[in-house]
């Protein structure tokens, strides 16, 4: 059985979560999203939890060592037959750590999926996003709840996350361009990069990714 050890790359708001849900269904891969993992961590009443909360509230990124630790544990626990990483690695130093950790386990990344979207489109998408405290996500234009400001599923109030506010979004995009884009080049040179146009509708993006990964899996088996 060939492993699909995948990294999902793209700016915040590119639709990585949506595509990950599709891929999880198509290929049965565990979705390891460091954003979700850290949001859970921030609620913990611990030094680490408070530290994560402080960094996230300022629009910054949680430090490498902390993220790596959480992630490698999850791969060991759930990722024997493959995995889908989202939110890690975000920069070269993290990619180094991940490569080493996988190599020690006789494994390697199979492919890197890059979803590309223009900055202006991203700001529009993210600033309109609302979610309840249980994580049900809506968009004021493209996916509004039945009643404004109220979650359809559980009736909880919908709020804009601090890191979806426009000034924080721009900061996140600056960080993405400075730190994550060099990774794109690195994985391209390694022959691992698969590019997808995230300006297209999600279903079209999904079809393209599924087709590419199906082909990759077949090639791995040959
Ligand atoms: Zn809800």
- Tally of DSSP helical segments: 8
> What is the alpha-carbon Rg in Å?
17 Å
Number of strands: 7
What share of residues is helical?
Answer: 40-55%
Bound ligands: zinc ion
End-to-end Cα distance: 11 Å
Task: Summarize the SSE layout with pairings.
Blueprint: E1 4-9, H1 16-27, E2 31-33, H2 34-42, H3 47-57, H4 64-78, E3 82-86, H5 92-104, E4 111-116, H6 119-127, E5 129-131, E6 137-139, H7 166-189, E7 193-197, H8 202-221
Parallel strand pairs: 1-3, 1-4, 2-3, 4-7
Antiparallel strand pairs: 5-6
This protein binds zinc ion.
Could you explain the architecture of this structure?
With about 220 residues, the protein is an alpha/beta fold. Helices cover about 50% and strands about 15% of the residues. It has eight helices and seven strands. It has helices spanning about 15-25, 35-40, 45-55, 65-80, 90-105, 120-125, 165-190, 200-220, and strands spanning about 5-10, 30-35, 80-85, 110-115, 130, 135-140, 195. A five-stranded parallel beta sheet has the order 2-3-1-4-7, with helices on both faces. A two-stranded antiparallel sheet has the order 5-6. Helix 1 (about 15-25) packs across helix 8 (about 200-220). The radius of gyration is 17 Å and the shape is globular. The model has no long low-confidence stretch (mean pLDDT about 90). The structure holds zinc ion. The site of zinc ion (ZN) has 7 residues, from loops.
